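Just wondering, does anyone understand these tokens?
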Amino acid sequence: MELSGRLQMNADLIPEGSAVCDIGCDHGYVSIYLAQKEICSRIIAMDVNPGPLEKAKKNIEQAGCSGRIDCRLSDGMENLMPGEADTLLIAGMGGMLISRILKEHKEILEKVQTLVLQPQSDLAKVRKTIHMLGFWLEEERICKEGGKYYFAFRARRGREGKPYTQAEYEYGRILAQRGDLLYGEYLSAEKDKTEHIRDKLRHTKTESAKERIKELTHILNGISETQRCFERSTNGNRNDNDNAGKGNGRL
């Protein structure tokens, strides 16, 4: 099974040997990939809509993975029993919906150790929900597909060490600290887009336009704060590479 860049990003975050529940599996492509690569000890593929689930079952059968993937019709975690999965994959949904799903069945979530989430919107809400539910952000990934940027998170049970700032909730911490180049491109694009909207609104003298300008200025401050962290990381990586090139007799 060959996956798109977005789906591959999600699959790459699943821990080896985990028992995973793919909530909102759609056509089952990630579940099939995980089964074919023998990444997981158990795979449960669930979807709230009968149509996509039937399509997933057919795809799973055609891939020869019927014996390795358990398909269920389920609204969120409704038909998942506590302890059946130690990892949840929830991808391709809005962030508000992902947050709702995570909060609905505490008795099931208590047995989960890892969350792999790929929200299509409201990333700050999802990061805050992760922390509120007692998980910490271990990894973040970014990809670009069809001209759009996508983010995926892996969170583990436990508490975050250093509290997140509001800008970090909005734009993340890990990719900035890593100096990820695609992430730098994303920040620049977000800044340009936000500045363009703000500049157009400056020609409007209504109170609502003034309030929106304040909001956009706040957003730009958050982007700038994140860009400074990103630039410190890229400069540090560049210096590390320069020093490595000089060599000091140690590996």
